[in-house]
Design goal:
The complex is a heterodimer of chains A (304) and B (341). Chain A has 304 residues and is an alpha/beta fold. Chain A has twelve helices and eight strands. With 341 residues, chain B is of the alpha/beta class. The chains are: A alpha/beta (304), B alpha/beta (341). Chains A and B meet through helix 1, helix 4 and helix 7 of A and helix 1 and helix 2 of B.
Amino acid sequence: MSNEARKLLLVGDNPFHGISHLSQERARSRNEGIGYPADKAADLVSTSLRCGADGFMFSVSDITLSILKIVQERRSARQLELYAIVPYSFEYVRVATQTGTPGLAKRFAKQIVVSGDIVTIWQGLKAVVKMDPEGLVKTYLAYEISRIKSSAGKHAKLASVLLHEVITDMSLALGFDWLFHSYVAYLSKMGITPGFHTRNFPYLVKKFEEWNIDLDKTMITTPFNKAGFQMNPTKEECEKTLSNLSSPIVIAISVLASGYFKPSTAVDYVAGLSNLKGVVAGVSNEQQARETFSLFKEHLKKWH
Amino acid sequence: MSIWGVESLRKRKLRFAVIGLGKMGLVHASILNVIPDVELVALVDKSALMNRLYKIIFSSTGISVMSDFEKLSGLNLDAVYITTPISSHSFIARNLYKKAIVRNMFVEKTLASNYNQAKELCDFAKNFGSITMVGYMKRFSVTFRRAKELLAQESLGELHSFKAYAYSSDFLGLTKRSESSALRGGALRDIGCHVVDLALWLLGDLKVNDVLPNVTEIGSATSVSFTAKNSDGLEGRFDVSQCMLNYRMPEFGLVIEGSKGRIEVNDDKISLTLDNGNLTKKYKQDLSDNVDFFLGESEYFRENQHFVSSLLNNQTSEPNFESASRVDNVIDQVRNRSRLE
């Protein structure tokens, strides 16, 4: 899939999971009780889409899939662009903490079996018997894609599936080039842009070039903000790597640093990064959704 | 030693192995593999199934995968990471020393299952002239480091009291939560140890006073509270729980009161409130939290970098076995006090 010239503006799901990179205290205060109700989160996504967001970026979990279902029902036949991050590492780490790695493996296998997807079950069985890591990756992706499509319905477009930062960065560090090649090949074949979520953007670009992975066929999400927060190794190195890319493939995350910056400050900074493909921002109330996306949309017009 | 800067001038890289390929083993292995002065030589995991899978996954990397740590013998290793369940730390470390497999070790927290085991490992380390480290990575967080600086500058004047907490929602709502927590050594050993280490690091040695409420088995309790006093008479309270509502990620924090004001510090921010009305608040974003390679938390890279630097410069590392054994001592005191009450 080629990278379009238009800049993307996406609404993210971090606030719905109780995530605030500014402080956990802040996340707790806006997530009182048992977390964000799906219909309230769906309202915020719908408002963001009305005010200029082009799509929804989310970690694939039961929570976000239920939000997605409500949003899509409200939009009826209007197409919704989806950018899904897999796996939802938080949940997997939590289960591993409670039950250990074998418990996690059992639970995951059970989920696939319960899904009733015969092809995926068969693929998974073959991969386990043959101890085939590439087969296991494909089985996992098939399972997640099937969950997303089943919740999103036929009018949604799954634009990209992005590998979660923990898996991306660990695989980069350990030199698992086979995983990246396999991931890119599998998703490209399905007409979905292979994406990678990373907090080590220059390192990823360096490794992909070494491994002959065509960056232009991928999408990268990585932090870009005025403070340089989570821009590793340095803000300058990330900006330099971005400007040297041959095409805009990067979606900036953490642009507001979860409230550390006002949207007006954040937008001034990202508007100066000409080689960005787009921006994702999370919102935690209706007013914030309207203001943030209206402001970003306005600035996108001036964005070169 | 930047992974982006000048290449190492060393002729030979330091040779490392990691024993235990759970979450922490993989995090450390990944970070070590990007540090230029390190060659990750071998990984050990005793699970037959995982071992088979890891052998295939790592086949193209040049890193050996084995099932028995004794097979590390003869690999001419400079250091080993032990990231297995806590109950096995002492056995593995002792045998690595006894069989002369390696001299320098990094052990994930807690160092051992009790203070006696920890003391024995300290003796081994002393006899072998080891450079050692224990994974109390919160000492490498920018906010807690700032707290250390402020206390060193005596910003609070005379210290009066403190409160420390470690909270998570890991076992909230689980029916068999004691069983699950016991697998990880109980809340105090699993998450409370970090805040005990921070308190020891910031405030000095601690003696446990009371355990509140009465907990019969520290090794499986999901919530523990206790009070402790340092040698200067500074008294404080610890609250540890894995059943707190809305603690999506574990959170560690301290509030320290002094004659001039108070410091409140946690993973995200630090504030210094002085009695004259001055308030200084800094978030992680303000404190240069970037690292050469980020995985999980920036603290993980810093602690690994510190251990590697200590080896390269043949210097003592911190927290080492000796300083970490004091955490096991405090946990043992809590266990003993809870049984007495």
